[in-house]
Amino acid sequence: MSSLRTILLTTLLATSDSFAPTSTHTNHHPRALTTALPVAVDTSDIKNGLTIELPDGEPYKVLSFSIMKQARGAAKTTIKFKNLKRGTTIENTYRSGEKFETAEILRKPSQYTYEDDAGNYFFMDSESFEEIMVESKIIEDQKKWISEGMECDLIFFKGEVIEVRVPSPFVFEVVETEPNVKGNTAQGYTKPAKLSCGATISVPGFVEQGSSIKVDTEKGEYIERV
Questions:
Q1: Under a CB-based contact definition with an 8 Å cutoff, are residues 132 and 123 in contact?
Q2: Which of 39, 63, 170, 224 pairs as cysteine with 80 (C-beta 3.0–4.6 A)?
Q3: Quick check: 166 and 146 in contact, CB under 8 A?
Q4: What does the pLDDT look like over 144-167, one tens digit per residue?
Q5: Residue 199's closest CA among 183, 182, 175?
């Protein structure tokens, strides 16, 4: 049974990793719909990014975890979760070996189309062309990266969108930044740059307005000029 559980968990984590879009272009080919089925796991299987269904019946994403070994007795694992429906975070401590069940989630590649006056975002399912509304509170953390026509992944739990994942890395144009000062060769010199999506990040001093750069949208960090 343990070997079967290991195989299922490995498959789940591989599927979960594939949920994050990785294209660097806004017109990339849509990927197929993917479902991650629930799998029984314990504290030894916990990974950052894993989505668990806790006893309250709601989905929680693992943000971080730490293991505290004790001189006597079993080790304890402290896990920080984000409730993907409510946006709140909690921190729980578990005995070594305590069991969980991963959440059954569905990923739908969808294209962002527009935002309404209430701040809700609308997407078009890339396979069915159905229009899907996502409430502002669900997309709050990702708003700064989303631009018209971008292909994102909508993550569903029990028929509701609980998360929007934007492509990472992704290429954006620098629309505003201070000019590169001639002769400034200081290693590590950075400056703020506003991107075509509206987000502002730090970039190396040599990056100029109008440049296209690759950005890690998960960390909000510059990767390279393209």
A1: yes
A2: 63
A3: yes
A4: 999 889 999 999 999 999 999 999
A5: 175
